[in-house]
Amino acid sequence: MAEIPDITIEVSHLVKTYGALTAVNDLSFTVKRGEIVGLLGPNGAGKSTTMRILTGYLPANSGSVHICGHPVASAPEATKRHVGYMPENNPLPDDMRVSEYLWFRGRLKEMPRARLRARIDEVLELCDLKRNRHRILGRLSKGNRQRVGIAEAILSEPAVIIMDEPTIGLDPHQIIIVRDLIASLRGRMSVIISSHILPEIEATCDRVLIINGGRIVAQGSPAELRHEIFGSTSYRLELAGDADALAGHLRAIEATLKVAALGDCGADGFCTATLVTESAADLGEQLLAALPALGYRVRSLGRTQPSLEDVFLAATRRSWDARLPDKPVNGDSRAPLPKF
Amino acid sequence: MRHYFTILSHEIRTLLYSPSTYIAAVFFLGVMGFIFASILDLYSKSPQETPPAVVFFQFFWFPVLFMVPLLTMKTIADERRQGTLETLLTTPVNTAEVVLGKFSAAYLFYLLLWGSTLGFHYILQLYARDARYLDSGPLIGGYLFIAISGLLFIAIGVLASSMTRSQPVAGIFTVVLLIAVILGPRYLGEISVLNHAVFGPLKSALGSLQIFTHVEDFTHGVIDTRQLFYYLTGATLALIFSILGVEAKLLNG
What we know:
- The structure holds 2 protein chains of 2 kinds.
- By secondary structure, chain A is an alpha/beta fold.
- Chain A has 11 helices and 14 strands.
- In chain A, the strands form 3 sheets. Chain A has a 6-stranded mixed beta sheet with strand order 6-7-8-3-9-10, sandwiched between helices. Chain A has a 4-stranded antiparallel beta sheet with strand order 2-1-4-5.
- Chain A is elongated, with a radius of gyration of 25 Å.
- The chains are: A alpha/beta, B mainly alpha.
- Chain A binds chain B through residues 18, 49, 52, 55-59, 77, 80-81, 83, 85, 87, 89, 91-95, 104-105, 107-110, 152, and chain B through 2-3, 6-7, 10, 14, 17-18, 82-84, 86-94, 250-253.
């Protein structure tokens, strides 16, 4: 296989419309070699459409996609050699056996027979399918089918792997197996996965793209996203002492540190306080050192992270809001977009 | 074309494993045996002018109408319904290879089924102990006709299958198209308006589209290049439209 460049996927100003519906609206992003990128978005956000365009299955209306330096639109056969794709719902022919199916797919992907034979054993081992290699695909359980789909996607060791909802419908145990499998590809292959299951994305992905209405509304690592969307970190503190004077003391520790909420104090005198700061640094140690010195008794301190779920909800809400002031500008007679 | 043989062997495997192939085969051999037996019955009652093989091939349209849809309706429609067309087309395979591979597999089966009817003639000769019954001329001509017209019929079936995601719709559409191609020119030619001198060229064009005339020519040893051209271009055109059909459906997602 030819040398794989550092940037494996390059999408610029991609637009795809279905009649009047704009599924993908001016989408641009790049994926580096060995990176695992998660595509997040509500239903109908354009995740599957984007993936299908990346694989060359759907043509885009405008914009360009380059996979390993080759344009998808004009050199589809060159790009398809670099892509392993698992579509949504993972369609498999019902009447084939696992090893037969992998053999057929491997031959279609132009793998030499001798290497394919060894590689099939390898992926069956990787995906824990050894015991099922002679079973008929139509009779496999959902989890095994999903693993066959993943085995098929990584079969020809492509530079780019695209998986549309790889963990949908799996039990927690199998989700962990699939997650480990995807994580084991890190560094070797670029992986794009889409999912609704947010902890899933958080655990496996280096970078998250949140898509809504066909546009990227936020991107970055899960930690960056948290900071970008909320801009603050919060701490949960259980302490006993002079609660009213707390705010003043806190300002002395860090300028932006405030008490966001103060719970009722219990019979033992301990109250629960939620502190908020704009500082990105971890203030845990400072708090633990300063508060007892001021006469407070601290029982517990925790840094509360907004979950990716909160980030996701906030980011998608923000993108709806961003659409509202879509008033005609400079004599532009375009009607405002409908409210959602 | 490097994927053509991969797809062809996969398709042949699928046809061998699919029950509809065997239903088509049993049906076909039963019906053909019945037709053959009735022809022999007719010949045993009174002397006829034409050899039995000529009459036998005149009935070609009947098995074609039910066998071609059974062999071809699954090809593309079912892949589209299951979603495996998407995984197939995201490998470095082009649409032409997919369509040609599926077409070739169905065509090979079509030939195989018709080839098995050679047994009828052999059995007849075996029991009659008379070499005259195995009249090689009409047989060679007849099977040549089957092989060449089969290209067009199977291509029509693949075309119908490429235009829908439902197998029954593909099957019915195939039957309709086949009826139009096989019986259409015969009925159109009988419209009395066409007898007017102005429509002379149209009438003669319809006359040369008569597949029943083609069978007669072939079984009598007349191989007309115009007829060969008709089947070959017809098949090519149907296959090109099938390729477009598969690709056009992609545009709609």
